[in-house]
Amino acid sequence: MASIPPDYRQALPTETETGALSRRGFLTTSLAVGFAAAVQPVHAEVISTSDEGLIAGSVRVPVAGGAIPAYEAYPAVGGPFPTVVVIQEIFGVHEHIRDVCRRFAKLGYYAISGELYARQGDVAKLTDINDIIKIVATVPDNQVNGDIDSLVDFARSSGKADTTRLGVTGFCWGGRATWLYAAHNPGVKAAVAWYGLIGPPMWDKNGTTVFQVANKIRTPVLGLFAEQDKFIPVDQVEKLRAQLKGHPCDLVVYPGVQHGFHADYRPSYNKAAAEDGWGRLQAWFKRYGVS
């Protein structure tokens, strides 16, 4: 792996700095090693993308009140590159999300993903989804939007990212956050939300829904959904489709597949749907000026 020049990125936190961050309320100061504990064992079809020819690794991104750990990847030669923010699953920025960043980098993008629960807790070490949801329930949407703004600012400051060509994509928890961020930041050229919750989130029945922000969205958003998703009924998708009529958005429902169909490290992975969605994402970004 090509190393990150020390004068180009903030160094990762020292032990002393890590303690200081924790005392200021940041409970997660480094990225998970490997895959999240809640999704073990890893599925046999897991995809592993090499970092050969890339600059790829952990960085620290300044945000309101401190800093969060993040992962960036981009080609070792050239730039500035079109920018993609990859928004984590509910399990955080574990190896699968980092691999997605490397996949984007292989396509010629600057990709970055940040630990958006860093103030609230480290979900990567938790094995019980109920414990994870307890942490997720404490993460405000406005904090998430602000931290993604900071990821974009960090990318811009690198000199390697062209944030005038900004795309956003996210999975599961990050799919919902993708919709909300598209409503928040009109500077996003295009977005792709993978099976993101569109009704009241399970961790907050009074939380903001995609229906509530849909009319604010001017960014072209591609929503990718699963017919057998027990968290997102197809009738919700159709209701959203009707609401978005006249907006530059498209919704795709894959028949016979489950929530998490892109997650190649999990039993829910569906190779055909995942590959089709990945192809649609690339075409969507190209169509709307990200790539």
How much of the sequence lies in strands comes to 15-25%
At the fourth level of CATH, the homologous superfamily is Alpha/Beta hydrolase fold, catalytic domain
Instruction: Return the CATH class.
Output: Alpha Beta
Largest sheet: 8 strands, mixed
The helix tally amounts to: 8
Unreliable stretches (pLDDT < 50, length at least 5) are 1-24
Approximate shape: globular
Q: And the CATH topology? A: Rossmann fold
For the biggest β-sheet, the strand order reads 1-2-4-3-5-6-7-8
**Oligomeric state, counting identical vs distinct chains:** single chain
The radius of gyration over CA amounts to: 18 Å
Quickly give the structural class. Answer: alpha/beta
Question: Care to describe what's here?
Answer:
This protein is of the alpha/beta class. It has a single domain, classed as Rossmann fold, CATH 3.40.50.1820. The protein is 31% helix and 20% strand. The protein has helices at 15-23, 95-106, 129-136, 141-158, 173-184, 210-213, 234-243, 271-287; strands at 54-63, 66-75, 81-87, 110-114, 161-171, 190-194, 221-226, 250-254. An 8-stranded mixed sheet has the order 1-2-4-3-5-6-7-8, sandwiched between helices. Helix 4 packs across helix 5. The longest helix is centred in the middle third of the chain and has 18 residues, at 141-158. The chain is globular and about 45 Å long. It starts with 14 loop residues before the first helix and ends with a helix.
